[in-house]
Amino acid sequence: MISSDGGNTWTLANKLPELMQFFPSHTPTLSLGEVPRGYSEKIERRRKSIEVIDMIPMIDMVFLLLIFFALTSTFEIQRVMEMNLPKAASGDQLQKKQTLTLSIDSGGHLTLEKKPVELQDLESILNQSVLESAGVTLVIKGDAQVSHGKVVQLMDIANGAGVKKILITVKGHAG
Protein backbone atom coordinates (compact mmCIF):
# COMPACT_ATOMS: atom_id res chain seq x y z
CA MET A 1 0.00 0.00 0.00
CA ILE A 2 1.23 3.43 -0.94
CA SER A 3 -0.09 6.83 0.05
CA SER A 4 0.83 9.94 -1.90
CA ASP A 5 -1.17 12.45 0.18
CA GLY A 6 0.12 11.84 3.69
CA GLY A 7 -2.08 8.86 4.55
CA ASN A 8 -5.55 10.11 3.49
CA THR A 9 -5.88 7.76 0.52
CA TRP A 10 -4.11 4.45 -0.04
CA THR A 11 -3.43 2.62 -3.28
CA LEU A 12 -2.04 -0.86 -3.91
CA ALA A 13 1.54 -0.54 -5.10
CA ASN A 14 1.16 -3.13 -7.85
CA LYS A 15 -1.71 -1.11 -9.41
CA LEU A 16 0.36 2.05 -10.02
CA PRO A 17 1.78 2.09 -13.57
CA GLU A 18 5.15 3.42 -12.47
CA LEU A 19 5.61 0.54 -9.97
CA MET A 20 4.01 -2.31 -11.93
CA GLN A 21 7.27 -3.24 -13.57
CA PHE A 22 8.74 -4.23 -10.19
CA PHE A 23 6.10 -6.86 -9.41
CA PRO A 24 6.42 -10.40 -10.86
CA SER A 25 2.69 -10.79 -11.63
CA HIS A 26 2.83 -8.03 -14.19
CA THR A 27 5.60 -8.49 -16.76
CA PRO A 28 5.21 -5.96 -19.53
CA THR A 29 7.18 -6.39 -22.71
CA LEU A 30 9.98 -3.89 -22.63
CA SER A 31 12.41 -2.85 -25.26
CA LEU A 32 16.11 -2.45 -24.53
CA GLY A 33 15.67 1.29 -24.02
CA GLU A 34 13.00 0.78 -21.35
CA VAL A 35 15.00 -1.35 -18.92
CA PRO A 36 13.77 -0.47 -15.44
CA ARG A 37 16.08 0.62 -12.74
CA GLY A 38 16.12 -1.50 -9.61
CA TYR A 39 16.07 -5.18 -8.96
CA SER A 40 12.96 -7.08 -10.06
CA GLU A 41 14.24 -10.66 -9.49
CA LYS A 42 15.10 -12.53 -6.33
CA ILE A 43 18.26 -11.44 -4.63
CA GLU A 44 20.71 -14.30 -4.76
CA ARG A 45 22.98 -14.71 -1.84
CA ARG A 46 26.18 -16.58 -2.23
CA ARG A 47 27.20 -18.79 0.61
CA LYS A 48 30.72 -18.30 1.76
CA SER A 49 32.74 -21.45 1.82
CA ILE A 50 34.61 -22.08 5.03
CA GLU A 51 38.25 -22.10 4.09
CA VAL A 52 39.81 -21.80 7.56
CA ILE A 53 38.38 -23.28 10.72
CA ASP A 54 38.65 -20.84 13.59
CA MET A 55 40.31 -22.68 16.49
CA ILE A 56 40.07 -19.92 19.10
CA PRO A 57 36.53 -20.79 20.34
CA MET A 58 37.51 -24.46 20.68
CA ILE A 59 40.66 -23.55 22.63
CA ASP A 60 38.57 -21.30 24.89
CA MET A 61 36.18 -24.18 25.59
CA VAL A 62 39.03 -26.58 26.38
CA PHE A 63 40.52 -24.11 28.86
CA LEU A 64 37.13 -23.53 30.46
CA LEU A 65 36.61 -27.27 30.85
CA LEU A 66 40.10 -27.65 32.28
CA ILE A 67 39.46 -24.91 34.83
CA PHE A 68 36.05 -26.39 35.68
CA PHE A 69 37.44 -29.87 36.32
CA ALA A 70 40.42 -28.53 38.24
CA LEU A 71 38.18 -26.50 40.56
CA THR A 72 35.52 -29.16 41.07
CA SER A 73 37.78 -32.14 41.59
CA THR A 74 38.28 -33.32 45.12
CA PHE A 75 41.70 -33.62 46.61
CA GLU A 76 42.40 -36.11 49.32
CA ILE A 77 44.07 -34.39 52.23
CA GLN A 78 46.40 -36.48 54.31
CA ARG A 79 45.59 -35.77 57.91
CA VAL A 80 48.36 -36.24 60.40
CA MET A 81 47.49 -37.23 63.89
CA GLU A 82 49.87 -35.83 66.44
CA MET A 83 50.58 -38.12 69.33
CA ASN A 84 52.93 -38.37 72.22
CA LEU A 85 54.43 -41.87 72.22
CA PRO A 86 55.22 -43.58 75.52
CA LYS A 87 58.80 -44.45 76.45
CA ALA A 88 60.00 -47.99 77.14
CA ALA A 89 63.18 -49.30 78.73
CA SER A 90 63.37 -52.37 76.49
CA GLY A 91 62.86 -52.83 72.76
CA ASP A 92 64.87 -52.88 69.56
CA GLN A 93 65.70 -49.72 67.69
CA LEU A 94 64.77 -49.77 64.03
CA GLN A 95 67.91 -49.87 61.91
CA LYS A 96 68.28 -47.44 59.04
CA LYS A 97 68.95 -48.70 55.55
CA GLN A 98 72.37 -47.90 54.23
CA THR A 99 73.73 -47.41 50.72
CA LEU A 100 77.37 -48.17 49.99
CA THR A 101 79.16 -47.08 46.82
CA LEU A 102 81.87 -49.36 45.41
CA SER A 103 83.94 -47.84 42.60
CA ILE A 104 86.38 -49.63 40.31
CA ASP A 105 88.64 -47.69 37.93
CA SER A 106 90.19 -48.82 34.65
CA GLY A 107 93.29 -50.07 36.51
CA GLY A 108 91.19 -52.39 38.73
CA HIS A 109 91.65 -50.30 41.93
CA LEU A 110 88.67 -50.51 44.33
CA THR A 111 87.28 -47.76 46.58
CA LEU A 112 84.40 -48.25 49.00
CA GLU A 113 82.80 -44.99 50.09
CA LYS A 114 85.85 -43.11 48.68
CA LYS A 115 88.28 -45.19 50.78
CA PRO A 116 90.72 -47.57 49.03
CA VAL A 117 90.02 -51.25 49.71
CA GLU A 118 91.68 -54.48 48.62
CA LEU A 119 89.72 -57.23 46.85
CA GLN A 120 90.50 -59.82 49.56
CA ASP A 121 89.21 -57.45 52.32
CA LEU A 122 85.99 -56.48 50.48
CA GLU A 123 83.88 -59.46 51.62
CA SER A 124 84.65 -58.95 55.32
CA ILE A 125 83.96 -55.19 55.11
CA LEU A 126 80.61 -55.78 53.35
CA ASN A 127 79.74 -58.57 55.83
CA GLN A 128 80.35 -56.15 58.72
CA SER A 129 78.15 -53.48 57.05
CA VAL A 130 75.32 -56.00 56.60
CA LEU A 131 75.50 -56.93 60.30
CA GLU A 132 75.43 -53.26 61.37
CA SER A 133 72.41 -52.19 59.34
CA ALA A 134 69.54 -54.06 57.74
CA GLY A 135 68.95 -53.78 54.02
CA VAL A 136 72.35 -52.62 52.76
CA THR A 137 72.30 -51.57 49.11
CA LEU A 138 75.55 -51.76 47.16
CA VAL A 139 76.01 -49.42 44.20
CA ILE A 140 78.81 -50.49 41.85
CA LYS A 141 80.36 -47.72 39.73
CA GLY A 142 82.59 -49.33 37.17
CA ASP A 143 84.76 -47.64 34.53
CA ALA A 144 83.83 -48.42 30.93
CA GLN A 145 87.22 -50.13 30.44
CA VAL A 146 86.67 -52.61 33.31
CA SER A 147 85.93 -56.13 32.09
CA HIS A 148 82.53 -57.68 32.59
CA GLY A 149 84.09 -60.57 34.51
CA LYS A 150 85.55 -58.20 37.13
CA VAL A 151 82.13 -56.62 37.79
CA VAL A 152 80.53 -60.07 38.07
CA GLN A 153 83.25 -61.07 40.54
CA LEU A 154 82.45 -58.01 42.70
CA MET A 155 78.74 -58.85 42.57
CA ASP A 156 79.50 -62.42 43.63
CA ILE A 157 81.59 -61.22 46.60
CA ALA A 158 78.80 -58.82 47.68
CA ASN A 159 76.19 -61.58 47.40
CA GLY A 160 78.36 -63.88 49.51
CA ALA A 161 78.64 -61.14 52.17
CA GLY A 162 74.85 -60.98 52.49
CA VAL A 163 74.09 -57.89 50.38
CA LYS A 164 70.58 -58.42 48.97
CA LYS A 165 70.36 -55.40 46.65
CA ILE A 166 73.13 -54.60 44.16
CA LEU A 167 72.88 -51.73 41.67
CA ILE A 168 75.19 -50.92 38.76
CA THR A 169 75.43 -47.32 37.57
CA VAL A 170 75.72 -46.34 33.93
CA LYS A 171 76.11 -43.02 32.16
CA GLY A 172 72.80 -41.74 30.82
CA HIS A 173 72.27 -41.20 27.08
CA ALA A 174 71.79 -37.51 26.24
CA GLY A 175 69.86 -37.10 23.11
The radius of gyration over CA amounts to 47 Å
- End-to-end Cα distance, whole Å, is 82 Å
The order of strands across the largest sheet is 3-2-1-4-5
Strand content: 5-15%
Q: So how many helices?
A: 3
- Kindly state the mean pLDDT as a whole number? 75
The total strand number stands at 5
Portion of residues within helices: 25-40%
Low-confidence regions: none
Overall description:
This protein has 175 residues and is α/β, with parallel strands linked by helices. It has a domain at 99-168: 2-Layer Sandwich (Nucleotidyltransferase, domain 5). The chain has three helices and five strands; from the N terminus they run H-E-E-E-H-E-H-E. A five-stranded mixed beta sheet has the order 3-2-1-4-5. The longest helix has 17 residues, at 56-72.
Detail the topology: elements first, then pairings:
Layout lengths: L55 H17 L26 E6 L5 E3 L2 E3 L1 H14 L4 E6 L5 H13 L4 E4 L7
Parallel strand pairs: 1-4, 4-5
Antiparallel strand pairs: 1-2, 2-3
Helix pairs in contact: 2-3
List keywords for this structure.
175 residues; Nucleotidyltransferase, domain 5; 13% strand; elongated
In short:
The protein is an alpha/beta fold. Helices cover 25% and strands 13% of the residues.
